[in-house]
Amino acid sequence: MNDLIISEGTRVTLNFALILDDGSEVDSNFEKEPASFAVGDGSLLPGFERALFGLKSGDEATLEIPPEDGFGQPNDNNFQTIKRDQFDVDSELQEGMVFSFADAAGGELPGVVKTFDAEEVTVDFNHPLAGRTLSFRVAIHNVEVAELH
Question: In terms of pTM, does the model score above 0.70?
Answer without folding.
Answer: yes
